[in-house]
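Need a sequence for this fold. Nothing fancy.
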């Protein structure tokens, strides 16, 4: 059985719904909805998980860590270790302040860029996982504290743009799942998703 792990990062709890930092949760929720999958709590791995079997011998695990953002690596490391999934077969979806809202960027290396969830993954899982970064920038107003901005909710206009972008985020994500990171980078990083 070949496994692929698709992880959306965010913070559990209703108070974090629709916050910028929960963009990863929103996208993986939308993918689960598109595929008709149901989430179940997997307490052994500190995550909510859903399983998709698109072809014989191939399984895709969708996951939302329930450890809070700063310890996202706990759940990812646990799931990856249990199912023997290497970093190269792990796609992690998370918000990125340095990318404009409505855009996405795919990469397989680099620093955490100030993102605590990505930093914890690098520390616990190591480099080489596929990063599917959802733009939430720019930070406005400029003087707002970074934590307050990412934990804040989208404005109505931003939320409208984010929701309008979900189908294209999913198209891009399915491209990564079906064709791998390199082909997805060539397609998605040059321009907005078609």
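Here you go.
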């Amino acid at each position: 059985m070949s496994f692929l792990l698709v992880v959306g990062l965010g913070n559990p709890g209703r108070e974090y719904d629709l916050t910028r930092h929960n963009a990863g949760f929103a996208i993986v929720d939308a993918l689960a909805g598109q595929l008709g999958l149901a989430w179940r709590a997997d307490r052994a791995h500190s995550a909510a998980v859903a399983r998709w079997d698109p072809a014989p011998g191939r399984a895709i695990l969708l996951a939302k860590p329930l450890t809070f953002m700063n310890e996202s690596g706990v759940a990812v490391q646990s799931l990856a270790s249990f199912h023997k999934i290497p970093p190269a077969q792990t796609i992690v979806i998370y918000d990125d302040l340095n990318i404009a809202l409505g855009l996405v960027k795919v990469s397989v290396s680099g620093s955490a860029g100030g993102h605590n969830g990505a930093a914890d993954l690098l520390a616990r899982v190591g480099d080489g996982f596929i990063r599917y970064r959802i733009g939430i920038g720019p930070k406005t107003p400029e003087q707002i504290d970074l934590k307050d901005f990412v934990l804040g909710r989208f404005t109505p206009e931003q939320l409208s743009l984010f929701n309008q972008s979900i189908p294209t985020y999913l198209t891009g994500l399915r491209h990564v799942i079906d064709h791998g990171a390199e082909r997805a980078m060539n397609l998605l990083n040059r321009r907005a998703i078609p």
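For context: DSSP finds six helices and seven strands in the chain.
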